[in-house]
Amino acid sequence: MNDRQRIRGVLSPVVTPFKADLSPDPERFVRQCRWLLSQNVGLAVFGTNSEANSLSVEEKIELLDRLVAAGLDPARMMPGTGHCALTDSVRMTAHAMKLGCGGVLMLPPFYYKGVSDDGLFRSFAEVIERVGESRLRVYVYHIPPVSQVPITLGLVERLLKVYPAQTAGMKDSGGDWKNTQAFLDAFAREGFDVFAGSETFLLQNMRHGGTGCISATANVNPGPIAHLFGTWQNADADTQQARLDEIRGTFAKFPMIPALKAAIAHHGGDPTWTTVRPPLVELTPEQSNALVTELDQRNFTMPGLRR
Amino acid sequence: MNDRQRIRGVLSPVVTPFKADLSPDPERFVRQCRWLLSQNVGLAVFGTNSEANSLSVEEKIELLDRLVAAGLDPARMMPGTGHCALTDSVRMTAHAMKLGCGGVLMLPPFYYKGVSDDGLFRSFAEVIERVGESRLRVYVYHIPPVSQVPITLGLVERLLKVYPAQTAGMKDSGGDWKNTQAFLDAFAREGFDVFAGSETFLLQNMRHGGTGCISATANVNPGPIAHLFGTWQNADADTQQARLDEIRGTFAKFPMIPALKAAIAHHGGDPTWTTVRPPLVELTPEQSNALVTELDQRNFTMPGLRR
Fold this sequence. Notes:
2 copies of one chain form a homodimer.
Chain A lengths: L8 E4 L13 H13 L3 E2 L13 H13 L16 H13 L5 E3 L10 H15 L6 E5 L1 H4 L5 H10 L4 E6 L4 H11 L5 E4 L5 H6 L4 E3 L7 H9 L6 H15 L4 H13 L16 H13 L10
Parallel strand pairs in A: 1-2, 1-7, 3-4, 4-5, 5-6, 6-7
Helix pairs in contact in A: 1-2, 2-3, 3-4, 4-6
């Protein structure tokens, strides 16, 4: 891969549609991904908001294969490939490489807590070595509120030293701008691409040398978020950011993943979309109504979603 | 299964041996499990101390198949079968049932934090329903320091109401005796079997109607722990408990899993045993020496381990 083609901009951790029997729904998945691409949003499939860790490796491979078979551009895909088990991470990462994905978003192994940077370095290094592809682009995934296993500056420094080509960047979902800025200050000049974990930090991230954002709400508000990415140097950027924050704020009042799915179900006219896998639960009808009502009051739309 | 044959006593979350290339080592695994059974300790393979979550489902199925093929009694096995992904938990649990395992130890899905009891109930219920075996015996696994997803009294009450046959018991690795006692008080009379998560609580657990313990250090000190289980009503029980606590205390000064493996490597005369999978790291030579020296000072032995 030519590094001038590195993934940039806004990506969606695409929510995974399930059928009534809780099996993944490839048709709805392909359709949703095609719609996101039409809104200039890339595909960080199998992220936290995708319920990726509630899916087996086989289920994820099948879904990824279906996207590529449907003609969607793998260069726009950054699937999540980090698992607790080394062998699962290797298998999923190798498969993403085989399909030509532009990058992979890699969680650290997240079962054991308080592990050392030595152990985490060895985890990422084993995956990179076993996959053995110079065109592999790994984005390390810092999401301590969920994984409870943080990515430190020292770990990235070590990875960049040993694997400068493969250590492509990170997603920072810690919610702490100071941490994002520390990574930007330390590594952005070396071509390490920092994606904010929410569009809340998109403008700030771009103004400090960041690369874009990978955000839950890019599932439902992709066009306006991508628009800010494309025009962040314009005079109206702060106004755009404030409008994005309003919509984000509405979703943040509810459990995020069921709320994203409820909005897609409502605005797409497709109630099947509300289904989540356990341990998550759907919004109650009351929550769902409250969400839709507040979104309507904010003149929120999802253009082009309804078939 | 006749419920009078329910698993009782002391079980070891068997540490998983790896070859130099980090692949699981079935020969050493079978040998270790056979030794543990000879010490009157059952096989809670694929527990936290087994690095189970660092193994793929395929690797675990292969290891379990090898144990049964080697003639070890599946009625003495309580493999860990709980995964983040519903489909992985179903697959592993169904396989354990097919092999005739006496029970399964089930982690809740542990990626998402702060999930509701509704969502956790639905997780366990889906596995029980999909496996569809009346002889399935599920032991729910409470280990909040690692999983960060606790098992509550309310959840167990609901499971017992809907699945009285399959909801067989729990392992409490929370390290809080008051919590163990609350589960004993609430459910032991209904035949819900509470295993303490460490032999530190073995005597206390037995005196309050518990069923035994499933403990890391049963990997290295199985005979004496099993002896206390068998003689807990004897006059010397407190003396036995104090001696167990001393040995446990020595191991607890080091990272537990690498320390267990270092002791097996040393006392078994088999250095290959020290290998751990990332994100864990082996003890340093200094740590290893300090462990062995202190164990020697305590006259610690592992009789019958060396071939």
